[in-house]
Write a structure and sequence with these properties.
With about 350 residues, the protein is an alpha/beta fold. The chain contains 12 helices and 12 strands. The strands form 3 sheets. It has an 8-stranded parallel beta barrel with strand order 1-2-3-4-7-8-9-12, surrounded by 4 helices. Strands 5-6 form a two-stranded antiparallel sheet. The chain has a two-stranded parallel sheet with strand order 10-11. Strand 7, helix 7 and strand 8 form a beta-alpha-beta unit. Helix 2 packs parallel to helix 12. The longest helix is centred in the last third of the chain and has 21 residues. The chain starts with a strand and ends with a helix.
Length: about 350
């Protein structure tokens, strides 16, 4: 079993006083001689995770938000890691794929563990338009993302590459800098609909499985994961491919699940910019109910159940402190690597 975490940023992080302050100060000039807290906090936490056995870090992207740019943050933090991979979000349609391929090759050579892509097809129309994208719907959106991936892989794997698609066209395009690994960067994505699942089956290496709607307990989550894995395997087999599976539950080491969930929600509400108990519980209860909160023994038992269903990566949501990361690394991640 592999393990990852999110780089702490306002869009993806809860329960962090540092991130809350960074968000509150986002429109203010920084005091002379200081950096944005997001960078220092991300560096401290992700380096601690690297030292604690974690395998990958997701740098999520919110263009229309107070988050630091995912690519800049991944470059700054990723260059300091010894073994972890940098998983960077990208929105096909906002960047040219040749430029993205060059950026990825650069980051792959800057990070000792290499890099991977999290393909985000987008749902936030205002953000997409504001940052130069053209909004597409349904099949067209996934066609553009497919071409985006094909162009990047073609550039990484060939000396020159020509391509005639509906969205991208190139004649003898080339990169004079290739990725640092023999294998091209992997593609991760998340989608719940039929068109999105077909896109992943045809193009991606990893699928982040959605939680079933209105999951109220771990059995609901397990049934949803099992159904999703079965469905994706059938789709991938039709394409002659194999897709690997990941999910992003909350992880907390506590004396029992009830205490862990209670403490987590209390910490989250304490530092949420606009606390709304009903909204918070609706958004957080599914990952909290995934069964990875409690004693290390109970967490390991649940991890084995997920591994038996086919999951290979747990991208941990957690209260982001160095102390907590080191504890989860020691009591969950390192022994969890032995689960097979």
């Amino acid at each position: 079993m592999l393990f990852g975490l999110y780089a702490p940023i306002p869009m993806a992080t809860v329960g962090s006083p540092e991130v809350a302050k960074s968000h509150a100060d986002a429109l203010k000039a920084l005091p002379a001689g200081t950096r944005d807290l997001q960078l220092d906090h991300s560096t401290n936490l992700v380096v601690a995770a690297d030292q604690s056995g974690f395998d990958i870090c997701l740098f999520a992207e919110r263009h229309l938000g107070s988050d630091l740019s995912a690519w800049l943050l991944a470059s700054a933090v990723g260059s300091q890691l010894e073994r972890m991979r940098a998983l960077v979000a990208i929105h096909p349609g906002l960047l040219d794929p040749v430029l993205a391929a060059k950026m990825a090759a650069s980051l792959d050579r800057m990070c000792k563990g290499g890099m991977a892509f999290n393909i985000v097809n987008g749902w936030f129309d205002e953000e997409f338009e504001m940052f130069g994208g053209k909004i597409l719907q349904g099949a067209e959106r996934y066609k553009r993302a497919t071409e985006f991936i094909e162009v990047m892989r073609g550039l990484w794997e060939n000396e020159t590459f020509s391509y005639q698609g509906d969205f991208f066209r190139y004649e003898n395009a080339r990169l004079l800098l290739k990725p640092g690994r023999e294998k091209s960067p992997e593609m991760f994505s998340v989608s719940s609909g039929d068109e999105g699942r077909d896109f992943i089956a045809k193009n991606c290496d990893w699928w982040f499985i959605n939680y079933p709607k209105d999951a109220e307990n771990v059995d609901d989550v397990m049934r949803g994961v099992e159904s999703a894995v079965t469905d994706m395997r059938k789709r991938a087999e039709r394409e002659g491919r194999t897709v690997r599976f990941a999910m992003n539950p909350f992880v907390a080491v506590e004396k029992d699940e009830e205490t862990g969930i209670s403490k987590t929600l209390e910490q989250v509400m304490k530092y949420d910019a606009e606390p709304d108990v009903r909204k918070m519980k609706r958004r957080m209860l599914p990952p909290l109910k995934a069964g990875l909160i409690g004693t290390p023994e109970n967490i390991h038992a649940q991890l084995r159940r997920y591994r038996d269903l086919g999951l290979e990566l747990i991208l941990c949501k957690m209260i982001p402190s160095v102390e907590n990361i080191r504890r989860i690394g020691e009591e969950v991640v390192i022994p969890g690597h032995q689960i097979n």
